[in-house]
Specification:
single chain, alpha/beta, Rossmann fold, Arc Repressor Mutant, subunit A, five-stranded parallel sheet, three-stranded antiparallel sheet, 14 helices, 42% helix, elongated
């Protein structure tokens, strides 16, 4: 296919999407770019989550239907899944489509974003024993929902497109298979993706998420209007998620655990050498709330587990088990927390 034919196919595909949905021109181009990005899943370390928002009957489902015909390795969830069903549906290196995603488990969505963030689970061995496994959930995700995510850390991992109402007379019903001709072209463009440029992307999650699409866009005909659209979307994303603070909830939970669990250090030592055996999850919630962040027990327990702490229910109460100062310190270092405990060597450990 020559260059002019490829350019025309791209324009026709964008027009098809805008005619059948409430997505504007630049949003439709973005959706196409994201579908092309899915062909790189086996080579990427991180992949943003695509969220489509908008009022009812504005083409959110149709947008997902069109994208499903273009992406790599599509999987679909139709009904409201339980956490276990959702987890088992998240095949590694797949592109997962989730309709009506307002009630889904946010933590699992976060696990989709980063290849280096597998989900630890306990599997029954059939004899009353359990074995710890790491479940790899990395992949692309396209979903639609009405409400923002509760956890800003999840919201910051998203690219969000908005559908708007259109006059019924202006909507053209989409026929399955109409856009399939674009798939080979997406594969061709993905083969020229400049992986070497990923390391040069500016710091910040919004810059990285949109930066991946910008790099993929280098293979397409240039469009200055789309560049302006991306700039506006990045600005909005940073305002929405308060970038630079999106990890604050997990940092606050870590800080509360460190403060509540550490026993006073021996004389002459700056760093504690022992921890309390366990601490009530509700006490962690009170400490976090005292710092101005309101979180429920589920959110705190989820973040504690995500960090690597054991969280167990005993006699109706949930407890966090810190195990050692070394573990608390190492988790703080992994999170990049600026705290004296993470900077000083652990003497006499």
């Amino acid at each position: 296919m020559d260059v002019s034919a490829r350019d025309q196919l791209l324009q026709d595909s964008i027009t098809l999407i805008t005619n059948a949905t409430g997505l504007a021109y630049q949003a439709a181009r973005t959706l196409i770019l994201y579908t092309g990005l899915t062909y790189l899943l086996t080579q990427l370390d991180q992949c943003p989550i695509m969220v489509i928002k908008g009022p009812t009957e504005t083409g959110k489902t149709t947008s997902m239907l069109i994208a499903q015909e273009l992406v790599y390795n599509a999987e679909e969830i139709i009904s409201q899944p339980t956490k276990a069903v959702l987890r088992d549906s998240m095949k590694e290196n797949s592109t997962l489509f989730i309709e009506e995603a307002d009630l889904i488990d946010e933590g699992l969505i976060t696990n989709r974003y980063d290849k280096s963030n597998p989900l630890p689970i306990n599997r029954s061995m059939g004899n009353g024993a359990f074995m710890r496994h790491s479940l790899h959930l990395f992949g692309a995700t396209i979903l639609h929902r009405r409400r923002p995510f509760i956890d800003p850390a999840t919201e910051s991992r998203c690219l969000t497109l908005y559908t708007t109402p259109k006059d019924t007379a202006d909507i053209k019903r989409y026929t399955r298979g109409t856009i399939l001709e674009l798939r080979p072209l997406l594969k061709e463009w993905s083969s020229s993706f400049p992986f070497y440029a990923i390391s040069s992307l500016p710091p910040g999650r919004a810059e990285y998420n949109w930066g991946l699409l910008r790099l993929f866009n280098l293979q397409l005909p240039s469009d200055p209007e789309w560049d302006l659209f991306v700039h506006d979307q990045m600005t909005q994303a940073k305002q929405t998620t308060l970038e630079g603070r999106e990890e604050e909830p997990i940092a606050m939970v870590w800080s509360a655990i460190a403060q509540l669990c550490l026993i006073s250090p021996p004389e002459g030592f700056n760093t504690p050498t022992a921890v309390k055996n366990r601490i009530l999850l509700t006490d962690i919630g009170k400490a976090v709330e005292a710092e101005g962040i309101s979180m429920n027990g589920w959110q705190i327990g989820h973040l504690a587990r995500q960090m690597g702490f054991d969280v167990l229910r005993v006699r109706g109460h949930q407890w966090v088990y810190p195990r050692s100062v070394a573990l608390i310190r190492q988790i703080g270092i992994n999170l990049g927390i600026d705290d004296e405990l993470c900077q000083n060597p652990l003497e006499n450990q």
